[in-house]
């Protein structure tokens, strides 16, 4: 996964992604726009059809990221750094932006940059994502007791 994450790091360092980060910063102050972003990102992550386990794992973690941002904005989860939240929102924004470095309408290659960026995010913020997963599983377990 390092080579995929390395490609994601290149995207992270690209001026276009820096622009996306600035847009994410503005969106974070607007809960309605966050809601629209989360809905669109979740739909995109669930629409990808692949039986490859690596892609499925990245999709699952992407969906977890959507749930993390949602939980933060509904106030049920606050144990996340502002840097993780900002970059997570930026990654989701990049995923749903029709104008990215490689347009998604180009089969396979169009989604490769999205997957690379997700791989970078996962490798960089694994601890935060795991901490949220533990919290989420504890919340679900308590809710079903």
From TrEMBL:
Residues 85-120 form the DUF1232 domain. It is a multi-pass membrane protein. Keywords: Membrane, Transmembrane, Transmembrane helix. It is found in: Endomembrane system. GO terms for cellular component: endomembrane system. Its main location: membrane. It comes from the Bacteria. InterPro entries: DUF1232. The keyword Cell division does not apply. The keyword Ribosomal protein does not apply. This is DUF1232 domain-containing protein. It comes from Rufibacter hautae.
